Amino acid sequence: MTEPTTQGQMAMKAWRLHRSKADRLEFDDVPVPEPAAGEVLVEIHAIGLNSSEMQLVRGDWEGPDTHRPYPMIPGIEAAGMIVAAGPGAPAHRVGERVTVHYRWACGDCDECVGGNENTCQVAAAPNAPKFGRTIDGAYAEYARVPAGFAVRIPDQVSYTDAAAMTVSGGTAWHMAIVRGQLRPNETVLVTGGSSGVGSMLVQIAKLAGTRVAATAGGPEKARRLRELGVELVLDHRADDDWSAGFAQLSDGAGIDCVLDIAGAGTWPRFMGSMRHHGRIIVGGYMSGDRADFDLKESTIREIAIAGASSWTRKSVRDVLGLAARGDLRPVVGATLPLRELPDGLRMLRDRTAYGNLVVQVR
Ligand SMILES: [Zn+2]
C-alpha cells in the first residue's frame, strides 16, 4: 500500500487497460479495493504472465469473456497473502499465503455438483465474474477475490513458484491426469513443450511413468526439454518426418496419448503414428484451430479426441502438493519487477520466453 489518496483511501499501483484493444497498459495509481461480503483482500507478491493476457491487451483475445468495464486491471494469476476479510469471509484466514483461482463457479449447477467446476454452467455466461477478464485481476499490488477462490499455498512453495504454476500446472494436470488419464509405460507426445504449460506437461507425464516426446523450436529449447527428462525432442520448425522417432520411442507400438497445446499445425505430423485406441487431449491451439486429419484412419484405429477446458481448484491443489514435496518445479524463464510488466508481455508475444514468466511485486 503506497500513499493515501486525497480522499484518505489507501492507493496502490496497477497496470490498467483503458479501452478495448488499446494494445498498451497504463501504470496508474488507484484505490486499494475493499473486500465485499464473502471476499478477501490479497496483498499480491507475485504475478504469473499468460499469453491470453497478452492477447487481451493487444485486442485479439477470442475467448468468451467479452463484457467488462474499462479501465480494467488484467491478469488471471496472482499469489500473495490474505490481509483482510470482508463481511462473512473467514477472518481466521488473514495471514494465509494463497494463490488465486481465476474462474468463479456457482457450486450448485449439475457441472459443479459433478466435480467439474471448470465447466460450470453459470460461469459460462459472458458477464460472469472472471479474475482479470470481466473484473479486476492480478496486475496490481492488491486484489479482492471470493474467499473460496483463494487456494492455500503449502509452506514449502514460494510465491514465485505458486504464481508460475497455478495456471500452467492446473492446465497441465487437468489435461494429462484428469482428461488424459496417463498410465505408466505409455508413450506420450507433448506439443508446444517449451511453453509454460508444456514444461509442466512433460514433467507430469514423466511423473506418471510415461515415455515422453515433445516439440520445441530451436536447439536451446530442445536442450532444456531434455534436461526435464524428455526422451525425444522434435523441432516443429524443421520439415522432417517424425514417424521413425515415434516408432523407436514406443518400441513400434505408436503414440498412446497426445497432449496438444500447439494446435492444428502438428496434427498431420503425428496422426499417422497414433496407436489403436490412442487419445488426443486438446488443451490449446496456438498454431490454429482447424485440424486436418483422416476420419477413416481415426475410425479404424478408434482414436479418441477429447477437449480439456481450463482446470479446477483440485488440480491446483494437486500440483502445489507435488511441488511441496519437491516432485514438480515450475520452469521460471524470467522474473521482472512490477514496473517492467509490459516487457514480459512483449516476450510472450515475440515467443522469446522459455517456460513461465513471473512479475515479483514485493
Ligand atoms: Zn456451477
What does this structure look like?
The chain is an alpha/beta fold and 362 residues long. 26% of the residues lie in helices and 24% in strands. It is built from 10 helices and 15 strands. The chain has helices at 51-58, 110-113, 159-179, 196-207, 219-227, 243-249, 267-270, 295-300, 313-324, 341-350; strands at residues 11-16, 26-31, 39-49, 78-85, 97-100, 142-146, 150-152, 187-191, 211-216, 232-235, 255-260, 274-282, 304-307, 332-337, 356-360. α8 links the parallel β12 and β13 (304-307). The model has no long low-confidence stretch (mean pLDDT 93). It binds zinc ion. The site of zinc ion has 9 residues, from α2.
Quick overview of this protein structure:
With 362 residues, the chain is α/β, with parallel strands linked by helices. The protein is 26% helix and 24% strand. The protein folds into two domains: 11-167 and 311-360, Alpha-Beta Complex (Quinone Oxidoreductase, Chain A, domain 1); 181-307, Medium-chain alcohol dehydrogenases, catalytic domain (Quinone Oxidoreductase, Chain A, domain 1), CATH 3.90.180.
